[in-house]
Amino acid sequence: MCGIVGIAGKQERHWLGAMNSTIVHRGPDDEGEYRSPDQTVALAMRRLSIIDLEGGHQPMQSRDGFVWIVFNGEIYNAPEIRRTLENTGCRFASQNSDTEVLLHLYQQKSFSMLDDLNGMFAFVIHDQKRNILFGARDRMGIKPLYYCYSHGRLVFASELKALLAIPFIQRNVDEQSLFHYMTLLYVPDGASIVKGVNRLPPAHYFVYDLKSHQLIIQKYWQLRFDAEEARSEDEWSEILRVELGNAVRRWSLSDVPIACSLSGGLDSSAVVGLLAEAGYPRLKTYSLGFAGAVEQEWNELHLAREVAQRWGTDHHEIILDANELLSDLVAMVWHLDEPYGGGLPSWYVFKEMSRDVKVGLTGTGGDELFGNYGKFKTYESNKLLRASLALGRWGDGGDILARLISPVAKLSSSLPASWRWIGRGRFLSELPRIMSEPFGRYYYANFEYLSDDGKRASVLSTHNGSLQDTATYLQNLYDASKAGNLRNGLAAVDFRTQLAEEFLSMTDRFSMAHSLEARVPFLDHLLVEQVFRIPPFMRTKAGDLKYLFKRAVGDLLPTPLLEARKRGFTLPIKLWLRGEIRPLVEHLLDPRRLSAQGYFNPRFYENFVRPHLEGQADFTAQVWAALMFQLWHVVFIEQAAIETPNYDWRAIAG
Fold first, then answer.
1. What's the confidence (pLDDT) of residue 541?
2. Which of 158, 254, 255, 465 sits most deeply, having the most CB atoms within 10 A of its CB?
3. Whole-prediction pTM
């Protein structure tokens, strides 16, 4: 596991070192640089040694010296690929370096090498003979790769902050990204929060011609839903058990000890059970709980403890006072690279884990494979509503509408006016439009957080119509999936958005902040492809989202865990905003500051912030998202930080 940086084009010699020094946390064990003979290409890396501890130094060159690579990640089928390459006559200098495997594979297969790789990766290759740079990101987007293509140069890095060390990159906010962020609480898509800096999307590669300066970006893989197989539940549960076990075994490849994050939920507990079943010796496990009484309803420490006792793990419990988290808030903002309004507790799991090991497995991805947190139920309820109304199945229209809406009460308050019963005649006249309402407009975040109309009216200052609606962006992804089924289409959207650019991004940044490699075996692409061959209504059920998953691995899990309702850590953010960090909120979201800054409508304070602070309404998500953006803005734009800040939020609040 590493951090990588590079520059192609006219450059100052010290730029490369400046970029590389910002990501020391990603690889404290080793570093290296490469410069092409003509000095126009420079590559560097920071290394966290996991596989081939002695022979994996980077940048690494091919045997003939014409191909160089910097690589962040792990290739879990590298041993099999190595044997195949050796059978064709390839000779390896290292004992088991997956980086060297990539070099040989590229020389044999060029860009099609990506089809053979199983793992998490972001790499860039300089091919001197072809005079190109070739870079790629793994299928799921587990490992990041930022780039900027400007002024006849291409620069890239594992983290955004490394690119900001380059003086010609301006620190300007991308307003389209901010617009999406205020609905989703993370920045999606290829554009980053900094104008002109992009992310290579998951499952894409780029080719940069060093002579013509042409940059080509190409997709090499996507989720498919056209290969469903008709099997019984018994057959599928048996297949799923085998594939889950294979994935966990592949992703435990390491020359150093590994550990597991153990939340007490199904996914991480299954990873522990599968590793134990495979014979992994004396596994270390780590669980997080909060000390406060208000959080005990969500506390799953007792369930995690049962799993640890069953498999005899070396178990560690981290008990956190939620207010302690605030002391690290600015450091989290720095390591996250971009604004993020979601959960933060995993910072402490990775921090504690890193004291003992370099590799930690998590259950990330299990929810997206099996049920997407039940999001589809809202859409299916809406579909039922529309169908019922179209068939004229009502007595008193208002009553039947209320009964149909009641299962999705969160949605009902945000429905278009025509959906709220005004009269049967008016409603019937609106029925054709109601029946054709698109997916994007009803994606959950548009109701739980902020809709496009709401952002334009009273949140953001941009009213010129030049920005794409978040609903349109989501709809385009849904349409491009060609899923043909609501549950599959929703999964395709979440894989490309929330999974990649929220959960995996946060996991990568928080783990690497503590020099820990986090692995996500449920996102092994062979397992993912197999899961989506299962018909969606068998893969997950509305009343039991992980029904099939539990059939597959239930014997590995304690009965109380199988029967427990899904929980999750709930930070007391609502109370923080009104209490301890209220001075920070009042300072950073002051209407005069918002007006001078120009991104937010100054009325945001009166419409959202003041009512929340005074307890008149609960606008936790909206205020927290705005506050986290402002913290990011202070660190990266106003103070133009080039190293980890050494102050906390109190210094900003004044």
1. 86
2. 158
3. 0.90
